[in-house]
Amino acid sequence: MAYSDFTLIRVKEELGLIVKEGQSLFEAIAPVAASAYLKESLKRSESFATLVNTEKVRSEFLIAPILGEVRSQMSEKLEPQPSISLFSGTEFNVDPLRGLQGFCDFILSKSSEQVDITAPVVTIVEAKNESIRSGLGQCIAEMVAAQIFNQRRGQPIERIYGAVTTGSLWRFLLLEDTTAYIDQPEYFIGNIDKILGILMLPFM
Q1: C-alpha to C-alpha distance for 104 and 191, rounded to whole angstroms
Q2: 10: how many CB neighbours lie within 10 A of its CB?
Q3: Which of 20, 36, 154, 183 has a Cα at 20 to 30 A from 11?
Q4: What sign for the dihedral angle of Cα 106, 108, 112, 116?
């Protein structure tokens, strides 16, 4: 069993979570202006990525540039000691006996270490080429793994953030203790400043 085997039902039954939907979790979060470089990159790439419509293309041409922008902007704000690392397609085996193993599409950590994943992991981003809802259970399982990972390394944090995205559409999640919250709104890439604001929240 791996992260990809988890559904919303399975995270409730097998990981003992409460899952809550219907709330607008990030309504009050201020947008963060995207750089001219990111805007131009997304403008050039969105139609191509949508046309090809594979998770790999969407990850490389839409999602990775957005997360790269988060890393770049936050590194500038946190100078002289930037503390944010970004991992893509990295194996994250935390508790194989519970199925918390496999590869995560993207991981953001509040650490300057870029060679290996280092605690605290704060955000998990799961890429899907079409169905957002089909990735929610998988993303929550990865967030639980991040929670355990941080605790084992003596750096527990109150909240783990997550997102399931097609690149064009984003849905955010939040894990506190044993309760997973699924944000009600879905944000389109045209609202990139709001998406950036939410993604940067854990590093503020």
Answers
A1: 25
A2: 17
A3: 154
A4: negative
> Is the separation of the CB atoms in 198 and 40 below 8 Å?
no
Instruction: Determine the structural domain holding residue 126 and report its residue range.
Output: 3-203
d(CA 200, CA 204): 7
- Could you tell me the pTM of the whole model? 0.94
Residue 202 region, left (φ>0) first, then alpha (ψ -120 to 50), else beta? alpha
Q: What is the mean pLDDT of residues 2-19?
A: 96
Token code pair at residue 186: 């879905």
Stated length of the chain: 204
pLDDT tens by residue, 19-51: 999 999 999 999 999 999 999 999 999 888 888
| 102 Ramachandran zone, left/alpha/beta (phi>0; psi -120 to 50) | left
For residue 81, pLDDT over 70 is answered with no
Report the CATH number that the domain containing residue 66 is assigned in CATH. Answer: 3.90.1570
**For residues 108-129, average pLDDT:** 91
Q: State how far the Cα of 57 lies from the Cα of 33, in Å rounded to an integer.
A: 25
- HSE at residue 112, side-chain half, CA atoms within 13 A, is 8
**pLDDT value at 75 more than 90:** no
Biggest CA–CA distance in the chain, Å, is 46
Q: What is the number of structural domains in the chain?
A: 1
